[in-house]
Structures are given as C-alpha cells and as structure tokens.
C-alpha cells in the first residue's frame, strides 16, 4: 500500500473524525495526515460513531476510479493523537473489487490485500501442521509401532524431522509478519520462541539417539 492514499476515520470524544493520509512508507512517521492524492468533494466527508460502530462516508471526484477498495482496522486504544494525528499500523485488512458503473461490489478479496492465501493464515497453518500435528504423530509412531523394528525408529525420525522443518518455516514467517509492524503479539511471540527452543532440544537429543541407534545396528 506504499504510495497510496487512505481515508481514515475514528471516534474522539463521541464525535467522528475523518482525515486523508498519504502512505509514504510502512512506519507511522511516513504516514502523513491531511495529505494524499484523492480528490475529495468539499464538505462531503463524514464519520459517525453509533452503537459501537464507526461509519465513514466521503465523496470522491475522479474520471478513472481504481477497481479495488482496501479496508483496514486498527488496534483498540491506538487512536490518533490530537497533536500530530499519527496513526499506527493496522491489525487486519481486506479487499473488495467494485464495479463503479453498476455501483455493485463483486466477491470479497483475501485478507491482507494478498492474492490467494494471506501470510498470517500461512503462518497459522504451518504452525498447526508442524507443532500440532506432525510432532505428536512422530511421538505416536515411537509409542505404538515399536514392534516394527527398526522401521518405527526411522519413521519416527522422518515424521518428527518434517514437523520440525515446517515449524521452522512457520517461525520464519512469523518474524517476517512481526517485521511488517504487527502489534500486541508479545505473548504469542514468547510462546512461539519457547516452542522452537524445546523443539531444537528435542531434535538435538534425537540426533544423538539416531547416531547411537545406527552404531548399534552396524554392530
């Protein structure tokens, strides 16, 4: 969204406030208020807060409107200050294509403004598959297939190793998302790093057992 203009609305003291921002970069300092490339019709912008919901409306004057609308929502309690109107990184977003000729929206786009599967869902899916599915499956192989010696051990190592690699991919993607400006994820990050640390210790232990198992098999 860098290089785009955005209309931002919020409630302050029970009254709605709306301003145009220009997104020069990803940091809050690079998002400047009362700036942008949208040609707004004067006195046609309004933000209304009612029943816990905020409604933002504005009129745009343009001959060639863009076919996509991007919506985003910020974190609770992180409203722009009245001094410089600096805004923080949004916590979630979505997109929708819009046919201005017929004034009708088409099917909703993906979250985070990305085509296909968004990064946050990839992070969750990889974490679930790596830490929540494959690692427990590897432990079950070691527990219930001992009679299939020595194949149970190699199956255990293969499943656990695959789960560890997928978990590593989830962690890398998580740090990338954190670098993009996601807020209020300290507890989530601590839990993720703790799981990664324990998984590394487990893999190290498995490596030593694997070497010992291989040596005994050769003997």
Give your account of this protein's structure.
The protein has 219 residues and is of the alpha+beta class. The protein folds into 2 domains: 5-113, no CATH class; 119-218. Helix content is 40%, strand content 22%. The chain has 3 helices and 8 strands; from the N terminus they run ββββββββααα. The chain has helices at 119-144, 151-179, 186-218; strands spanning 5-12, 15-23, 31-33, 46-50, 53-57, 68-73, 92-99, 104-108. The strands form 3 sheets. A 3-stranded antiparallel sheet has the order 1-2-3, with no helix packed on it. A hairpin with a 4-residue loop joins strand 7 (92-99) and strand 8 (104-108). Helix 1 packs antiparallel against helix 2 (151-179) and helix 2 (151-179) runs antiparallel to helix 3 (186-218). The longest helix is centred in the last third of the chain and has 33 residues, at 186-218. The radius of gyration is 25 Å and the shape is elongated. The protein starts with a strand and ends with a helix. Residues 107-115 have low confidence and may be disordered.
